[in-house]
Write a structure and sequence with these properties.
The protein has about 350 residues and is α/β, with parallel strands linked by helices. Helices cover about 50% and strands about 15% of the residues. The protein is built from 15 helices and eight strands. Strands 1, 2, 3, 4, 5, 6, 7 and 8 form an eight-stranded mixed β-sheet that branches. About 5% of the residues have low confidence.
Length: about 350
């Protein structure tokens, strides 16, 4: 007779990435099938924030099965809403629309000109799908949703009772395509500019010491971009990938600086020494896709990414499920910072 699996608690850090967020949908769908894995806190930006509130509200409504159903509902509505006229209304739909040429033109026209009334289909979709009051009151999952303060350029992290429709809209607000979202007198843009997603606060604040990062963006992109559209896409990739690398650097430096520090020294940052990080990487799937796939909301493309996410999560669970609560399964420095070090060495 085999030994029963022990229960395990896990935080999630969900990167943004437009239609590629369907990969995260698949990862979450597979994790939610494991009744012995308890989700504690989810940090998310942009599409990661949308996946996060879907899980949190589903858990509040009826547990893991309801959360899986809520994710399916959200992405089905994204598919149905992914039509060209909505491109000008909200950046999230820009990320999943099939009208690729419009994305290039958007940077030439202010959203305050082409959409003066701020028409927002994502707002309506979220209001119809997510019960934010129920989520705040009953969800067993805590949330950290990131947005970028326009005035300072700094990340603002919204927590449980602060999370509303506006919070999620702010986290997914690209300034070239939508009006800034105002909350309590402050204007916000996409959280991916400043925390994509936030890892440091998640590790410092959660009582759970294991965090699974779901990475959507590939670690490197080749060949050298030369066309105008390719250059623009590459700049966007660098812009939205940098905050995560910054958090990894902060964690690595704190660990190296505090390693060996005696008890009572190092303050609250010492929890980072004991925090265990894990990783599911969509890079092998997203790196091989053309840029146009970021702009497709057809069900076949979304479900293909979902299925890839489920498969990667299944592989991760088979290999590392037993390590949750025991040891870290990704070398953050080697995985995320290796390419940067190689580039620095070549310049020396």
């Amino acid at each position: 007779m085999g030994l029963l699996k022990r229960n395990a608690s896990l935080n999630l850090a969900l990167q943004g990435g437009g239609a590629h967020g369907a990969f995260t949908w698949g990862v979450l769908d597979r994790l939610l099938e494991h009744s012995d894995i308890k989700l504690s806190c989810i940090s998310g930006a942009s599409a990661g924030a949308i996946n996060a509130v879907a899980v949190a509200d589903g858990m509040a409504a009826g547990g893991a099965l309801a959360a899986r159903e809520k994710l399916h509902e959200i992405w089905e509505k994204v598919h149905k809403a992914g039509v060209p006229d909505l491109v000008w209304s909200h950046p999230f739909f820009y990320g999943v629309t099939q009208a690729a040429a419009l994305g290039h033109a958007a940077g030439l026209i202010s959203p305050y000109d082409f959409n003066p009334l701020g028409f927002d289909p994502l707002k309506e979709m979220l209001e119809k799908t997510i019960d934010f009051e129920r989520m705040a009151a009953k969800s067993p999952v805590n949330l950290l949703i990131s947005a970028t303060d326009v005035a300072t350029g700094q990340a603002h992290i919204f927590r449980r009772n602060e999370i509303t429709v506006k919070t999620v809209l702010a986290s997914a607000c690209l300034p070239t395509l939508h009006h800034a979202v105002e909350i309590n007198g402050r204007s916000y843009w996409d959280g991916g500019f400043s925390a994509n997603p936030d890892l440091v606060n998640l590790a410092l604040e959660s009582r759970v010491r294991d965090t699974l990062i779901v990475l959507l963006s590939p670690m490197k992109r080749e060949p050298l971009p030369k066309g105008a559209r390719a250059i623009s896409d590459h700049i966007n990739w660098m812009t939205f990938h940098t905050p995560l690398l910054r958090d990894i650097e902060v964690i690595t430096r704190i660990r190296e600086g505090l390693n060996g520090v005696g008890a009572g020294r190092g303050g609250h940052l010492k929890v980072l020494l004991k925090h265990r990080f894990h990783l599911i990487d969509a890079g092998p799937h997203t790196a091989m896709l053309s840029e146009d796939t970021k702009m497709k909301s057809d069900w076949k493309s979304l479900t293909k990414l979902r299925d890839a996410g489920r498969n990667e999560a299944d592989n991760w669970l088979q290999e590392h499920r037993r390590h949750i609560g025991r040891r870290e399964t990704v070398d953050l420095k080697a995985h995320f910072l290796e390419q940067k070090k190689i580039a620095q060495d070549e310049q020396a």
